[in-house]
Amino acid sequence: MPQKRRSQSWTELKQAGNELFRAGQYGEAANLYSQSIEQLEKSGQKNKEDLAILYSNRAASYLKDGNCSECIKDCSESLDLVPFGFKALLRRATAYEAMERYRQAYVDYKTVLQIDCNIPAAHDGVHRMTKVLTDVDGPSWREKLPPIPTVPMSVKESLAQAASSPSTSQQNGMIENKRKVPGPEAVKKAKTLKEEGNAFVKKGEHMKAVEKYTQSLSQDPTEVTTYTNRALCYLSLKKYKEAISDCDEAIKLDSANIKAFYRRAQAYKELKNKKSCVEDLNSLLKIEPSNMAAQKLLQEIQKMK
User: Fold this and answer.
1) Is residue 81 within 8 Å of residue 51, measured between CB atoms?
2) Any idea of the CA torsion for 108, 114, 116, 121, to the nearest 10 degrees?
């Protein structure tokens, strides 16, 4: 008599979803997150923080698959459970932007900056939305915005406390890994090392450039262009997984970084990962529809068997 298969717990389903997400299987990941949500709700625990994370994770899967409306719904669910979760706010802002709902995107990006003013993706989002809204609505564009919520000091303090405690941060999954904000001396040193790396690239000495970029990032791990520059070197050195890793870091810092999406797509192409390559190129073309290099690479990859 065959043994009855044990059903997976909500935590096991969530972990499996996380693994599929990291592997680029976003549809399958969303399905497992849905099962995990259902299991958690049935369990009677209904822990708000855990549910908020699951909705936010599923939102990230929908966003990667280009399903922006479902992403927005899940982010809103997550934020109803745990107000001012900045992952959910950033994901919803990105989805609003992709759907050309620029005012709502602006509000979410600005809210993120109230929570943590050191998030480059939110700064970049605010700059993009300011430009677009000025073009669309003219000088009085701010008058047409929805209300921007005020983030309570208690929320900022609890987030700062959680970020300073690695064990808490790991358990709740709600806080992004904090990058140490470099001081002026470190930034200056990082810039010099990056420029030395750039000089090696011009000479075609990519391995030496990688060393300089790595030293630069040890001084300032928040500089997006250093990651994308090192990714370019890794592509030349045929170290495609390392290139993908650097592009991942760049996109964490700037969710609309054209070079990071393009170089990661190039790496995925070389690794014969057609699906992830196409996803990155589609993401890039949503941000910059007239990008000829991305259009050309997309045509090439679509011909691959």
Assistant:
1) yes
2) 30
| CA distance to 109, 132, 184, 227, 229, per residue, from 259 (Å) | 22, 21, 26, 10, 9
Which stretches of 225-284 are assigned E, i.e. beta strand?
none
Kindly indicate the confidence band of residue 165, based on its pLDDT and cuts at 50, 70 and 90.
very low
CA distance 257 to 250: 7
Kindly give the residue spans of alpha helices, DSSP state H, lying in 116-144: 120-137
Instruction: Catalogue all structural domains in the chain, each as residue range(s) with its CATH number.
Output: 10-172 (1.25.40.10), 184-302 (1.25.40.10)
Q: Which of 201, 127, 271, 268 is nearest to 294 (CA)?
A: 268
This prediction's pTM = 0.54
Secondary element (H or E) of residue 22:
helix 10-22
Q: Is the pLDDT of residue 71 over 90?
A: yes
The CA distance from 150 to 146, in Å, is 13
Cα 274 to Cα 172: distance, rounded to the nearest angstrom:
34
Cα gap 266→243, rounded to integer Å: 9
Per residue in 227-276, pLDDT tens? 999 999 999 999 999 999 999 999 888 888 899 999 999 999 999 999 99
